[in-house]
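User: Assemble these into one structure.

Assistant: Restating your components, then the assembled model:
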Amino acid sequence: MLHFSDLLQYTDVFFSGLMTTVELTLLTTILGIALGTSCAATRQYGHPIGQRTVTVYVELIRNTPFIVQLFFIFFGLPSLGLKLSPWQASMIALTINLGAYSTEIIRAGLNSIPKGQIEAAKVLGMTFRQTLTRIIFTPAFEKIYPALTSQCIIVMLGSAVISQISVEDLTYAANLVQSRNFRAFESYLVTAFLYLGLAIALRFIFNQIGKRLFAYREAR
Amino acid sequence: MSLVNLHQVHKYYGDHHVLKGIDLDINAGEVISIIGKSGSGKSTLLRCINGLEEYQQGGITLDGNEVTTEDIQVRRLALSVGMIFQNFNLFPHMTVGENIMLAPTIVLKKSKAEAADIAKAMLEKVGLAEKFDSYPEKLSGGQQQRVAIARALAMSPKVLLCDEITSALDPELVGEVLKVLEQLAKEGMTLILVTHEMNFARDVGSRVVFMHKGKVWEQGDSKTLLSDPQTDELKQFIGAVL
Amino acid sequence: MIQFSNYDIISNLLYATQWTILLSIAAFIGGTSVALLLTAARLTRNNVVQKCVHFYVELFQGTPLLMQMFLCFFGLSMLGYEISAWGAAILSLTLFTSAFLVEIWRGCIDTLPKGQWEASRCLGLSFLQTLRHIILPQAIRVAVAPTVGFSVQVIKGTALASIIGFVELTKVGTMLNNATFEPFKVFALVALIYFVLCYPLSLYSKYLEKKFHVSR
């Protein structure tokens, strides 16, 4: 039989795990998208060497498992003298991971902007930087916003792995609870639904933000 | 008895009342042109006749059989009604020949050889005999539409419904499609067209039905009606399109 | 303490790679089979069935694969069903893969113009005939590229099986790391092997996609 009541006393454990996951997700989202944006711009408009570097980075990350990236950063980098706490290592790994995927997504957005827009800006005497920030970015992001936010949620779900280097996230909490009360199924089931709730909540929040961000269409 | 009969047909899209009691009798061999502004319900009317759209009140009979959107019913209907669409809807993964042969073989259960003979005959009729093995994407819009006509004809329908079949075509390609229709009309095929081609309606059509605000506003012999419209709405419409 | 030469490390990793490949293939076959069933169920146009499939997709796309694996492994054995790490890994990866594939394929079927259904209906084709002769041949052509692309996610997903103790590439990597204290080298090699497995599939998927777009 299932005994969910045995989990009640661990509410605070679950809660603090959930908070860690949320905190990491938010930070990663911001940093990862920033990284992805600059990489995408480099890949699209940058120096050939920069373009090639970005391609290698994106392909390396997209074609290896996140857990291996995490282990490489957490266990491997210290041997080069770079000591990282589990939290720092997770932050870096998650950001690098999201950065690679969002580079691809954002690049697709940049590609979708008609050449005529850039030419029109040029004819009007705008500098390249002005064109990029004022003409290209908004419609490009609007186009790929759903894909980008889904990727953020995928990364959030993937972050369950960081419990393996003992970051005290939601999955860590689940492991902790089940090791104390031996109610593995209940503990993991509750955790799974907490993740599901978090995913749904994030999607809702992203949608709301999207409506604000791209409200310029309805504004007039 | 008439071939197609509509009696007090009402159609709603949610709250939107699209068809407001349509009565229409169409006899075998007639060429009916349904004209009217966009949004007047003319395409919807056509799609109700072959069960692609539901209607909420009234009745439609075709050759004495009631028309509904039931799958079985629509399939039986397909044996007597052919439909040509504005954007052709050819099957892109099949050659022209395969497009035409598909329904005769799997619906009418004809042999491959027999279906191929029919397909060739129909392509001959629309003047595309040499395109049997081409893929639709290699053809011009006008050619694709003629293939679509051949595909419908291969089921030897009693009536052919044409939903703005020249609207997606470049102007210079319209003529070849209309010529095929004219030939069909001469052979006695019953045609119901939703169209903007006023000249065609006048010269080839036997009757014009003017739809306005979901109703049959005015109808009559094509030559008389178009040269001497009775209602202001039709006068205005003719003035706008000519 | 046993000394591990580079040769030992690489040969151990390559040996473990077989299990990663095997698990990937099993999960991919399982995932496509279940996804086929779910796609068929969805196409019946039965409202209740469609809601169920939708819920299934939400559930497995909205929770971490790791949690699904834990539930299959620890959870099922708690409930009295003994299951090996291998069995739990295949089961959870199958569920996970099918949830994504059914969604990918739905997109492929939905991109076909409605006119294809209507034209088939007007020619008197039955629902199944339309599926078989008109919809599936076209949808499959669209679906191949993203499906190959998703196989990369499946291979990467198998790495999580190491956490429930299934001995595959990542697990052997952590074991070798514990034995050699050369994490940089070991995990770089592990990553390299995954890359060699995944990158060709990524390239092939891109190639297919391009080929398809040209042919349109």
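Residues 4-214 of chain A form a domain with the MetI-like fold fold (CATH 1.10.3720.10).
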